[in-house]
Amino acid sequence: MVMVYSVGHISGAHFNPAVTFAFATVRRFPWRQVPAYVLAQMLGATLASGTLRLMFGGRHEHFPGTLPTGSDVQSLVLEFIITFYLMFVISGVSTDNRAIGELAGLAVGATILLNVLIAGPVSGASMNPARTVG
Predict the structure, then answer these.
(1) 2: Cβ–Cβ under 8 A, 6 or more apart, which residues?
(2) Gene3D superfamilies per the record (predicted)?
(3) Domain residues for 16?
(4) CA distance 5 to 10
(5) Cα 33–chain centre separation
């Protein structure tokens, strides 16, 4: 939420490929820029993951909240559902003129909190394909 408020006015807060696809789908972002954004997001996630691996020696016990405990299928389905839910909220608060712009970050943050509480124990609640792959 902090990053959205900090640099959202500069980049549109495209930290997540799902956000980029959602905005392109509702015609708020040009499709021709999607590949470059997704590539940058994947590269950023991979570099961040590599940095954490170097900092913590690659031991998984340092990251208990991001390790799925459910099966691969359970995690995939749950991630799809919570990512869709998050993109639905983001699309709603950022593209509807009737939404109160200053509260968009709060709505998105609350959605992330609920998603983490619900899906975190099963899938790790990534909600970000770049983070999952990185």
Answers:
(1) none
(2) Glycerol uptake facilitator protein
(3) 1-133
(4) 10
(5) 18
CATH of the domain at 24: 1.20.1080.10
Distance CA 42, CA 128 (A): 10
- How distant, in Å, are the alpha carbons of 45, 74, 78, 112 from that of 115? 20, 15, 10, 5
| pTM, entire model | 0.79
How many domains are contained in the chain? 1
Span of 49-63, 76-90, 114-128 with lowest mean pLDDT: 49-63
Q: Note the helical H segments in the chain.
A: 2-11, 17-25, 34-56, 72-95, 104-123, 129-133
Give me the amino acid identity at 39. L
pLDDT band at 63 (very low <50, low <70, confident <90, very high): low
- Give the span between the Cα atoms of 116 and 120, in whole angstroms: 4
| Cα 49 to Cα 45: distance, rounded to the nearest angstrom | 6
